[in-house]
Amino acid sequence: MKIKPLPPLNSLVAFEAAARHLSFTQAALELSVTQGAISRQIRHLEEYLGRSLFVRDKRQLTLTQTGAEYYDSVQQSLLLISSATGTILQWQGNQQLTVVTSNAMASLWLLPRLPEFQDQHPDVDVRILATDSLQGLRNSEFDVALFYCRTPPAGLAATPLFNERVFPVCSPAFLARHSNTESGEGGAEDILGTTQLWLDSAEDWLNWNQWFISTGLAPKEPRRRLNLNNYPMLVQAALNGQGVALGWEQLVAGYLQSGLLVRPVAMELNTTARFYMLEPEEPMRRKPGVEQFRHWLLQRVNESETEQTS
User: Fold this and answer.
1) Burial of 9: CB neighbours in 10 Å, binned 0-12, 13-18, 19+
2) pLDDT tens string 82-124
3) 134 and 115 fall within a common domain
4) Which of 150, 166, 178, 278 has the smallest number of Cβ neighbours within 10 A?
5) Full-prediction pTM beyond 0.70?
6) Which domain holds residue 21?
């Protein structure tokens, strides 16, 4: 839709300054132009509108009723444009960093570790944008993106972070309620047929049927299932003792170490998908803050993998 009618935009700036000061002289000083230039811009705007905006006399400058009403709208519009422009300019600074990632990666992996980066680089401001779809990534303005996928999107530089192992997890209380036997793998697997927590996602996340088939186990029809479209919510449901979830090792490692989640069976699956760091192939300019975050992230990934294999 074409926006019309639009007046001469330079004239609007001149009009706003003159109306605010009620002085062509003060407006000229503010905008670093001559008083004659301000007068010409105002006259140009009045001719476009077909209305007088100012009452001019030798002693003072006042707004007409039309001018006063128009000034309120023009000033608010220019303030909105100024605010939006300031936000963009703020996040173009060398020490500004925008990270786009999934809700799961943001809440379960990145945020718990981010204070370490902020302590090491207190001058870098981080903005995290969470989205669970890679489809809209190309339309986002970002410095670094962190996503789990089988094939990284074309047109982005992709650095593998870590592979994933996927296995069932549940709360200790849920396991105690549904354990039918103290030994025997077959008996232990019966818990997988109780309440399954399913993730509704069109991305590359495994569902229960795919996990069963890939591990060679016969799919178990659950007595009930709970579907959620957000992985952090799914993990929270498992923590609440509401069922068995599929746990991605890197995302649930902290809960396993603390004992808040346990693995009811030993079976696991090494996925073909992995977590990637994605970056624009040709950034407008490489910011120091991005380089610092990139170095910290790769170092932290290596440390996490070492901790889990030791």
Assistant:
1) exposed
2) 888 776 665 555 567 889 999 999 999 999 999 999 999 998 8
3) yes
4) 150
5) no
6) 9-82
